[in-house]
Design brief:
With 349 residues, the chain is of the alpha+beta class. The protein has a single domain, classed as Vitelline Membrane Outer Layer Protein I, subunit A (Aligned Prism), CATH 2.100.10.50. The chain is built from seven helices and 19 strands. A four-stranded mixed sheet has the order 16-17-19-18, with no helix packed on it. Strand 18 and strand 19 form a beta hairpin. The longest helix is centred in the first third of the chain and has 10 residues. The chain starts with a helix and ends with a strand. InterPro entries: MABP (IPR023341). This is MABP domain-containing protein. One of its GO terms (cellular component) is cytoplasm.
Length: 349
Amino acid sequence: NSEETTMANGPITKLGVSTTKDDEEILGAQGYQLLNADLNEGTGKNRVFLWYKKECGLRPVTRIQFSFLREMKDGLVDAGYELVNKDLNAGVGGDHIFLWYFYGNTEFDLPIVNIEVSKDAKEEPALLKDGWERLGCDLNRGAGGNYIYLWVKREKPSYICEITATTDFKSDKQKFDLGFTRVDENTNRGAGGNSIYLWYRRTTDKSKALTALNVSTDFQENVRLQNEGFKKVSVNLNAGTTGNDVYAWYLNEGCESQIKVNSARVHGCPCDVKENVTHRSRRPSSPTLGAFDGGWVITGPPIGLRLRSPILSRVRCTLYCDTLNPPINDLCYRTVASDQTAFVAFMHR
């Protein structure tokens, strides 16, 4: 009937996680729908599934976050996020990962109407082109197995309109209250230094969307980007390491603008840090597949060792974007297993 159709197309109102058969039976009996993708796939351990509920007349879920450190939880609790108290890495010995969701009412909160899971980078270009957003945390983080990411689809198309960064967890509540989403991966992972996280806000107004991003690694690049009209995110992405100061820059030229980029194509696709260098050999497939379908190109100079401590890490970092459609839709960070390269990645749609 029409009411069932409306609910099927409506927003998600609750989320759940099962780590046992008993959990599955309980959630099923409570009217939750199963997302049939094992979040522990490739580990040979417990089956872990996501569940969701769509209920007529209830508040929609607008944001989803993950925590894998105790310090990541405090801001989520204080901001009023709902915790699903089930470890997504249950039984596999990796990081203890927990899912949180939020009913937001800021202008940056857009109802989530569907969720999906990817288990291979080859799946990502099709999802990106179909309007899905990929969240920042590898749900097998620290456990080996497949690279598994949660994706969300919103009620309306949306774009990133603001980015920022933090070097500790003290301002997390304030950022959440202001409508920011945290990219749940430390860009200094494995390099020592501060715990640095990127944040963004979304808009449905394409004219407010960011249209270009870049990075600076020295004074000359700072001057050049400033002269080109870029605005600087005033947080050193290399804080706490012995490398150069590294800053992100962004540009908003309106919806008709064109992005100026370098022409060098790279073999990589959009996602976040997957693992430490010491764990790479356990991954069954390279996360670099699918790059050319995604249309990613380098927008800024390779950061090389400068984003991370040259003593603690050999990871190289590069900024990405897609020039086909200027408004920036997604923001994430990744490590490529084949050559120990890390990327801060931005997707345009």
